């Protein structure tokens, strides 16, 4: 049958979508992007914050309309929203034929079979189950770059976060599964893998008795065809000397680290249930920069957490100015039902949250401009992502740019280049977030 798949939410959810697509393809179904032709529609949803839930609900409603009027026979809702509202979705939306939880996505083919027989199916497993599927994923990220998910769930229980309730405690994907996934990706032409999980740095502890991300990375570096390995979602308190050393010495590992820290004020970090202090954050950032001088550090922050005072906000501003992150995103705090933070005193108005976010982003804009200006004159390897015909330039990413969230480099090239190629580029210009450069044909740095 022809199946349309809509994937919402984070890159971890996207990997689940790609696995489901792989299972559906193996079962003989055809994947389509054409809404008018789709006989089965699957919406893999997110339920992280209010806006993400809204988007998920809207998408399901749109697909329900399509089902009323088109050729679609089944509408299936999977993922985190399905986990949270499994009964409500079936009760309130008669067009939905099945709901599938985020730890039961590997049941998608059986769910479809049962639904086609007329059953309204709920397929859920314990939040602590780890689906292990050896299928070749259907890649949705362009063929040369992909996410590699190395664990599921999270044990950290930050007071604002609903994810452990939706996705369970931390479970590492065993090494042989991760490596097989990576080899399959390389065999399909993937050159860049972006390592993701709710938290990547404690990988291995639950199954091998100790953190072994550094060991996994060394094995991943041996996979032929993979040229860039990028680490996302690292917890500052879990970064080990071994990990820093492997990033420093393995040529395939990008000198890039995404380390969401959320805040810098000790009082707020404590209320958030984070396990670091400002002093410890400064220590780990200093160590990373001393060991790997050209490392690009990315972080994300939450502003407007309950009880955040002017002095906490000032602390964060001074931290941003002092630490000079290369990349930084700011989210306004969103109270989530069922989390401890939702019940905390001192909730802050949306207006104040937004104005604090804008202030932080403005500060970061100056930091970022300084950082990009410092790249001018350097020679870098660039992964080409496409061409902008109207402007006659190519667009790509350097080791400093993770897909989707960071900047780009715009390239002038004398010869035609193809998406997925690596080229050598001399950086000639910069604005706050992006670079420009000329393709050169000899690497000089
Ligand atoms: Fe959303 Fe679930 Fe990811 S809540 S952010 S899709 S883990």
Descriptive tags:
globular, six-stranded parallel beta sheet, alpha/beta, 35% helix, binds FE3-S4 cluster, 445 residues
What does this molecule look like?
The protein has 445 residues and is α/β, with parallel strands linked by helices. The protein is built from 14 helices and 19 strands. The protein has a six-stranded parallel sheet with strand order 2-1-3-4-5-6, sandwiched between helices. A six-stranded parallel sheet has the order 7-10-11-12-13-14. Strands 15-16-17-19-18 form a five-stranded mixed barrel. It is globular and about 60 Å long. The mean pLDDT is 95.
The strand order across the widest sheet is: 2-1-3-4-5-6
Q: What structural category characterises the helix and strand content?
A: alpha/beta
Distance between the termini: 53 Å
State the low-pLDDT regions, or none.
none
List the helices and strands and how they pair.
Layout: E1 2-7, H1 11-26, E2 30-32, E3 40-45, H2 50-69, E4 74-79, H3 80-84, H4 86-92, E5 98-100, H5 108-116, E6 121-123, E7 145-149, E8 151-152, H6 163-167, E9 171-172, H7 175-187, E10 192-196, H8 205-208, H9 213-221, E11 228-231, H10 241-249, E12 253-258, H11 266-271, H12 278-291, E13 296-303, H13 310-323, E14 327-332, H14 350-373, E15 379-388, E16 393-397, E17 409-412, E18 422-430, E19 435-440
Parallel strand pairs: 1-2, 1-3, 3-4, 4-5, 5-6, 7-10, 10-11, 11-12, 12-13, 13-14, 17-19
Antiparallel strand pairs: 8-9, 15-16, 15-18, 16-17, 18-19
Helix pairs in contact: 9-10, 13-14
The chain binds FE3-S4 cluster (F3S).
Summarize the structure.
Helix content is 35%, strand content 22%. The protein is built from 14 helices and 19 strands. The longest helix has 24 residues.
């Amino acid at each position: 049958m022809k199946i349309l798949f809509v994937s919402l939410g984070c890159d971890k959810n996207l990997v689940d979508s790609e696995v489901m697509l792989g299972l559906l393809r193996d079962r003989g179904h055809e994947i389509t992007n054409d809404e008018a032709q789709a006989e089965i529609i699957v919406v893999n949803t997110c339920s992280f914050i209010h806006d993400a839930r809204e988007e998920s609900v809207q998408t399901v409603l749109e697909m329900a309309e399509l089902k009323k009027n088109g050729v679609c026979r089944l509408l299936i809702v999977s993922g985190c929203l399905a986990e949270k509202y499994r009964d409500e979705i079936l009760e309130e939306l008669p067009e939905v034929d099945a709901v599938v939880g985020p730890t039961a996505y590997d049941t998608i083919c059986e769910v479809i079979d049962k639904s086609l027989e007329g059953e309204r199916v709920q397929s859920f497993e314990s939040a602590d189950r780890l689906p292990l599927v050896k299928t070749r994923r259907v890649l949705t990220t362009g063929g040369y770059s992909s996410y590699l998910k190395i664990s599921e769930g999270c044990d950290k229980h930050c007071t604002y976060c609903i994810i452990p309730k939706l996705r369970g405690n931390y479970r590492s994907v065993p090494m042989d599964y991760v490596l097989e996934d990576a080899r399959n990706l390389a065999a399909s032409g993937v050159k860049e893998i972006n390592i993701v999980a709710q938290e990547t740095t404690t990988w291995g502890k639950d199954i091998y008795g100790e953190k072994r991300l550094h060991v996994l990375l060394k094995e991943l570096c041996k996979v032929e065809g993979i040229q860039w390995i990028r680490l996302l979602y690292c917890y500052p308190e879990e970064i080990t000397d071994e990990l820093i050393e492997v990033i420093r010495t393995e040529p395939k590992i990008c000198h890039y680290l995404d380390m969401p820290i959320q805040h810098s004020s000790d009082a707020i970090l404590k209320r958030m249930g984070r396990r670091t202090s400002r002093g410890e954050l400064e220590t780990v950032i200093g160590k990373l920069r001393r060991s790997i001088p050209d490392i690009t550090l990315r972080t994300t922050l939450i502003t407007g957490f309950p009880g955040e005072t002017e002095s906490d906000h000032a602390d964060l501003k001074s931290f941003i100015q002092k630490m000079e992150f290369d990349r930084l995103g700011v989210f306004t705090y969103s109270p989530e039902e069922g989390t401890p933070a939702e019940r905390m005193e001192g909730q802050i108005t949306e207006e104040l949250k937004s104005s604090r976010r804008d202030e932080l982003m403005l500060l970061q804009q100056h930091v970022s401009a300084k950082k990009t200006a410092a790249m001018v004159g350097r020679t870098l390897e660039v992964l080409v992502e496409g061409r902008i015909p109207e402007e006659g330039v190519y667009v790509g990413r350097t080791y400093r740019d993770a897909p989707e969230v960071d900047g780009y480099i715009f390239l002038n090239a004398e010869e035609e280049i193809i998406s997925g190629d690596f080229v050598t580029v001399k950086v000639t210009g910069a604005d706050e977030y992006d670079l420009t450069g000329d393709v050169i044909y000899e690497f000089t740095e």
